[in-house]
Write a structure and sequence with these properties.
heterodimer; A: alpha/beta; Rossmann fold; six-stranded mixed beta sheet; four-stranded antiparallel beta sheet; 10 helices; 34% helix; disordered N terminus; B: mainly alpha; MetI-like fold; 3 domains; 2 strands; 76% helix
């Protein structure tokens, strides 16, 4: 499972570790939702978490930027590191962590503000732009990277909630990359979108690969196969198998993985 | 035959009707079998149908008896008197009748008026006759109704449908009572206000700045011409209810709501919310004497200590502060609703950007909840300006145009109380002005409520 030694799907490029998780357990009250997950997230790849509903993949994703802190009654055990630094260490500020590990949610959740203000929200909080001109640059760059600039450049002052679902989700991605994170977590980012909007999001993920480490949760296996280089299969709160996407989909080691991928359950 | 005895007899008749109807229907069931549809309605529904047909006319007669009998008896008593036995005025007549009634009841051993003894005998005879008349009419109609209902019962008779229709009718009538009362209140306000505006021009009332409603009893009295410029009252109402009270209630209520929705542990919220609601249930008169006895002297002492020598012991500040505290739970519960209605994904989105909880609240939650919060504040203002006890007890009655919170001011509600307490001539401009004030207050709070509810509703739809 030493991912940094394995070859990426498209060649022999060297990969570097971005985040590591060791024996992560999550409890909701007495219920153990995640039963000791260990995984490495590489900088250059898109990592997909797949598995049936309720398997713990989203729960694990939310551990990576400590969003489970906001859930009443949730308790996280185990060690998660970002660039070798423990994210639960008191020295690690959760605000800093979330600025470095951005997140895109299942349902597009733009703020009820203008498109410009949605993107400027993070940079403003973290003081990334001293002048209005700097902010304009950040907003344009983020919207361009999210593939939304050409569609909205003439109506930046319109409300973000007036956009279509697919545009809203790309706006949320622009918002996330505006603070220049190192990792972007995506929690089923296309599950609320139509096929065309989904294709655009997948294209965008491919464009962003390499610039940011990307972790995407999906229960659409074709999507995982299309966009990711590494795939982790979760089942009933455990990590069943983790490896190169091509290997997981063509030659899974575990029968449970094989059964899920071939549609025997899930 | 007393009214109560008849009432009991009628109820017994109804019960008998129920029993008979049910027994007859049980007979149908025995004949036709008990599968669904064999007999259209259940036996108890047949029973209720018969009981309703019996009770409805009987109770109507009893109600007519209770409403009319007093007048009919009095008229007979007065007619029986010899010419000139009682004075012609209403006052003398009602005094005489009260005396006669006292004799009949045995409250008085003897009467002033020489004719009272004879009149008492007439009263008794007349009352007994009407009781016999109405009582037997009620019982007869009740029995007839029961009989008619009973005779209509068959296996196919749709007693269930008819009983349901009656239930609906009863519910409609019950809700009409509240609605008609509201219309009645508005109509009486309008009518009396109209009379007032015949005496005082609406322009003077709405824009005049001089309020001294004492009108002269005699033409030669000094300084009591009566002035009805209500602007000082409107100002006092706004000053206390919409300015001082809101300066207290909006920040405290909003912060309470933010704490309870965003920071408080579920256990704390579970305790704190009901406690706040208890605060909203404290009778306002309790707030009133708290304001008058505790807060007002403290405010005056504070004013004196900072060198305001003419500080009054009744002050706008004391009344406004206490009213603000009273309104806090109102504002906080509306703001609580508005904040909880903001989708959780919005909050998560902001937190995931690395915003702190307070940044999230300031920049995302409050802007998103603002229409709901504004609606809540408007409703709170409408409550505050209609609030009476606190201002009656703590604000004073001096109609004054002042922005000094240590001064005593008066409000529309406090003036209405002052104008209508004590002995009043009902046709003087002074008394009638209370209705005009009430009308203005009613219209303003109505407009505020309608607007606020529209804002809140529109905003709710946006997130559903």
């Amino acid at each position: 499972m030493a991912a940094h030694e394995g070859a990426a799907a498209d060649g022999a490029a060297e990969t570097t570790l971005k985040m590591t998780a060791r024996d992560v357990r999550v409890f909701y009250g007495a219920f153990e939702a995640l039963k000791g997950v260990s995984i490495d997230v590489t900088k250059e790849d898109v990592t997909a978490f797949i598995g049936p509903s309720g398997c713990g993949k989203s729960t694990f994703l939310r551990c990576l930027n400590r969003m489970n802190d906001t859930v009443a009654g949730a308790r996280v055990e185990g060690r998660i590191e970002l660039d070798g630094q423990d994210i639960h260490d008191p020295a690690m500020d959760v605000v800093q962590l979330r600025a470095r590990v951005g997140m895109v949610f299942q349902k597009p959740n733009p703020f009820p503000k203008s498109i410009y203000e949605n993107v400027a929200y993070g940079p403003r909080i973290h003081g990334l732009a001293a002048k209005k001109a700097d902010m304009d640059v950040i907003v344009e760059k983020s919207l361009r990277r999210a593939g939304l600039w050409d569609e909205v450049k003439d109506r930046l002052s319109d409300s973000g909630t007036a956009l279509s679902g697919g545009q809203q989700q790309r706006l949320c991605i622009a918002r996330a990359i505006a603070v220049n994170p190192e990792v972007i977590l995506m929690d089923e980012p296309a599950s609320a979108l139509d096929p065309i909007a989904t294709a655009k999001i997948e294209e965008l993920i491919d464009d962003l690969r390499g610039r940011y480490a990307i972790v995407i949760v999906t229960h659409n296996m074709q999507q995982a196969a299309r966009v990711s280089q590494k795939t982790a299969f979760f089942h009933l709160g455990s990590l069943v198998e983790y490896g190169d996407t091509r290997q997981i989909f063509t030659n899974p080691r575990e029968t449970r993985t094989k059964d899920y991928i071939t549609g025997r359950y899930g | 035959m007393s009214l109560w005895a008849v009432l009991l007899a009628v109820l017994a008749l109804g019960a008998l009707g129920f029993w008979l109807g049910r027994r007859r229907a049980l007979g149908f069931v025995a004949q036709a079998g008990s599968e669904v549809g064999a007999v259209h309605s259940r036996p108890h529904q047949h029973g209720v149908f018969v009981a309703i047909l019996s009770l409805l006319p009987a109770l109507a007669v009893i109600a007519a008896w209770a409403a009319l009998a007093g007048g009919l008896v009095s008229r007979e008593v007065l007619a029986s008197l010899p010419e000139g036995a009682v004075g012609p005025s209403d006052l003398e007549r009602s005094a005489f009748l009260a005396e006669v009634r006292g004799l009949v009841r045995g409250d008085y051993a003897a009467a002033f008026n020489a004719h009272a003894e004879a009149a008492a005998a007439v009263w008794k005879a007349s009352a007994t006759r009407y009781a016999m008349l109405f009582g037997s009419a009620a019982l007869a109609l009740g029995a007839l109704g029961a009989l008619w209902g009973w005779s209509r019962l068959t296996a196919d008779f749709r007693a269930r449908t008819r009983v349901e229709r009656f239930v609906m009718l009863a519910l409609v009538l019950a809700s009409l009572v509240a609605i008609l009362t509201t219309f009645g209140i508005v109509a009486s306000l309008l009518f009396e206000s109209f009379r007032f505006f015949q005496l005082v021009s609406p322009v003077e009332f709405l824009f005049g700045t001089q309020w001294s409603p004492q009108t002269a009893m005699r033409a030669d009295q000094v300084g009591s011409s009566g002035a009805f410029g209500a602007v000082p009252l409107f100002w006092g109402t706004v000053f206390i209810g919409a300015i001082i009270a809101m300066l207290v209630a909006i920040p405290l209520g909003l912060m309470t709501a933010i704490y309870l929705t965003q920071y408080a542990a579920p256990g704390v919220r579970k305790v704190a919310k009901p406690v706040l609601e208890v605060l909203a249930g404290v009778p306002t008169v309790v707030y009133g004497f708290f304001a008058a006895l505790t807060v007002a002297p403290a405010v005056r002492d504070f004013a004196l200590s900072i060198g305001i020598s003419n500080a009054s012991s009744e002050s706008a500040l004391a009344a406004g502060l206490v009213m603000g505290v009273m309104i806090i739970p109102f504002v906080s519960s509306m703001a609580d609703d508005a904040l909880t209605a903001v989708p959780r994904s919005m909050r998560d989105g902001s937190l995931a950007m690395g915003a702190t909880p307070s940044e999230t609240i300031r920049k995302v939650l409050i802007p998103a909840a603002l229409p709901g919060i504004v609606g809540g504040v408007l409703l709170a203002v409408s409550r505050a300006i209609g609030e009476t006890m606190i201002v009656v007890m703590a604000a004073g009655l001096a109609a004054r145009l002042t922005a000094n919170p240590f001064d005593s001011v008066t409000t529309v509600t406090a003036q209405i109380v002052a104008l209508l307490t004590g002995d009043q001539e009902f046709d003087s401009a002074k008394t009638l002005s209370a209705f005009a004030l009430g009308l203005v207050l009613f219209l303003v709070t109505l407009a505020l409520n309608v607007y606020a509810l529209a804002v809140v509703k529109k905003y709710r739809e946006a997130y559903d």
